[in-house]
């Protein structure tokens, strides 16, 4: 075989290889392999459950039952649903003036803390310390009574620690609260 | 001459033993005025209230020294204020707040606490994070809070107001303070309502100062 022929074959083979590689890279060609097939996750079981929302109105403890989606495996989603419903109930009852949305709920398995990020502070400027405290206690009680088994809850606003001139949220609050 | 020197040093020593210092931390500073009570700001009301209590206490007990940490014109961040308070080595700090109450005048007493309750060994030289500063004098703070609440509750029948507490929760105005620190929140119906709380609070402080 002459040198020219060898060069032509190598160039042609390289060209073919390059085209194939490009096609695979940009998914023009899809190679299906039995090794590459991943096991499909079974659909999480979502049931509905009657939950109790706890809040204070006119110095009285009030209970409201709501039916919520309850993903058995996804505890963060459950906390998201419960917290959203808690703030919706407060808005409906006229305890808070503005709608508060839950942005994200994340669970840290190392510290066993659940992080709840809200889109705005849940407190009004004119509220007393006691009223602010009761609102947080009600949220914690709602989570606790509905068997959310995380020992600590950290409240955030826009994914930053909730900053308040009276209550200190620099550390996560215990789910059982501070009411004795 | 020698006798006079010893007499003066003994007199100074006794003054140091019996003179108690209480610090008042009022709401806000030169740039933040706090909540609104009718047509006044929380900052102005708490400052006037602290000065009135200070004046009244000075009339009855000259050994009790009361100072205001953040007088008019001052501006501190929370940790700067805590550092200033810690450097002053006072016997008690009281952070005074007030808000607009709708139903009846109320008085709430709080102090800093967090679960689990502290078991800090204060005898050893250890670094203490600022959010655990309260642990150093926690038991003293609890005693003072109970004592003050008990005294104020005894006035409930004479004056129409309600005393609530003492409650133990994490509080921003008391973060970083090593000295026993209490937070007092007055629920006022009107902006002039604070005058009713001056006498009773001054009396309660005078009673507490004896036990500090």
Description:
The complex is a heterodimer of chains A (180) and B (212). With 180 residues, chain A is α+β, with helices and mostly antiparallel strands. Chain A contains 3 helices and 7 strands. In chain A, strands 3, 4, 5, 6 and 7 form a 5-stranded mixed β-sheet that branches. In chain A, strand 1 (46-57) and strand 2 form a beta hairpin. The model of chain A has no long low-confidence stretch (mean pLDDT 86). By secondary structure, chain B is of the alpha/beta class. Chain B has helices at 2-18, 42-60, 78-88, 138-153, 195-211, and strands at 20-26, 36-37, 40-41, 64-68, 92-100, 106-112, 162-169, 181-188. In chain B, the strands form 2 sheets. Chain B has a 6-stranded mixed β-sheet. In chain B, strands 2-3 form a two-stranded antiparallel ribbon. In chain B, a hairpin with a 2-residue loop joins strand 2 and strand 3 (40-41). In chain B, helix 2 (42-60) crosses helix 5 and helix 4 (138-153) crosses helix 5 (195-211). Chain B is globular and about 50 Å long. At the A-B interface, helix 3 and strand 7 of A face strand 5, strand 6, strand 7 and strand 8 of B.
Q: Low-confidence runs of chain A (pLDDT<50, min 5 residues)?
A: none
Largest sheet of chain B: 6 strands, mixed
* Class inferred from helices and paired strands of chain A: alpha+beta
Order of helices and strands of chain A: HEEHEEHEEE
The oligomerization state is: heterodimer
Q: Globular, elongated, flat, extended or rod-shaped: what is the shape of chain A? A: elongated
Q: What is the end-to-end distance of chain A? A: 94 Å
Biggest sheet architecture of chain A: 5 strands, mixed
Instruction: Please tell me what the overall shape of chain B is.
Output: globular
Beta content of chain B comes to: 15-25%
* Average pLDDT level of chain A: 86
Helix content of chain A: 25-40%
Proportion of beta-strand residues of chain A: 25-35%
Number of helices of chain A: 3
Record field, number of beta strands of chain A = 7
């Amino acid at each position: 075989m002459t040198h020219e022929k060898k060069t032509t074959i190598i160039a042609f083979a390289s060209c073919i290889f390059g085209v194939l590689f490009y096609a695979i890279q940009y998914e023009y060609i899809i190679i299906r392999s039995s090794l590459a097939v991943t096991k499909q996750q079974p659909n999480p079981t979502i049931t509905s459950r009657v939950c109790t929302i706890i809040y204070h109105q006119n110095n009285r403890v009030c209970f409201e039952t709501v039916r919520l989606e309850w993903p058995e495996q996804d505890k963060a989603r459950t906390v998201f649903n419960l917290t959203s419903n808690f703030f919706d109930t407060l808005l409906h009852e006229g305890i808070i003036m503005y709608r508060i949305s839950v942005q994200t709920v994340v669970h840290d398995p190392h510290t066993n803390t659940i992080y709840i990020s809200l889109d705005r502070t849940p407190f009004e400027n004119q509220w007393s310390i006691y009223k602010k405290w009761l609102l947080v206690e009600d949220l914690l009680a709602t989570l606790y009574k509905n068997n959310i088994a995380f020992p600590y809850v950290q409240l955030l606003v826009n994914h930053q620690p909730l900053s308040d001139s009276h209550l200190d949220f620099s550390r996560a609050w215990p789910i059982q609260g501070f009411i004795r | 001459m020698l006798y006079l020197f010893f007499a003066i040093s003994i007199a100074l020593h006794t003054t140091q033993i019996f003179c108690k210092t209480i610090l008042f931390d009022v709401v806000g500073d030169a740039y933040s005025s706090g909540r609104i009570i009718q047509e006044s700001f929380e900052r102005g009301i708490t400052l006037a209230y602290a000065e009135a209590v200070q004046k009244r206490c000075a009339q009855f007990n000259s050994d009790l020294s009361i100072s205001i940490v953040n007088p008019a014109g001052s501006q501190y961040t929370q940790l700067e204020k805590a550092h200033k308070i810690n450097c002053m080595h006072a016997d008690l700090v009281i952070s005074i707040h007030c808000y607009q109450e709708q139903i009846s005048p109320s008085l709430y007493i709080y102090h800093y606490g967090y679960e689990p309750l502290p078991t800090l060994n204060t005898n050893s030289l250890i670094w203490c994070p600022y959010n655990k500063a309260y642990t150093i004098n926690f038991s003293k703070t609890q005693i003072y809070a109970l004592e003050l609440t008990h005294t104020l509750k005894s006035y409930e029948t004479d004056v129409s107001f309600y005393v609530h507490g003492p409650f133990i929760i994490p509080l921003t105005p008391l973060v970083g303070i090593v000295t026993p620190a209490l937070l007092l929140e007055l629920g006022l119906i009107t902006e002039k309502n604070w005058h009713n709380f001056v006498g009773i609070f001054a009396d309660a402080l005078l009673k507490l100062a004896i036990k500090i």
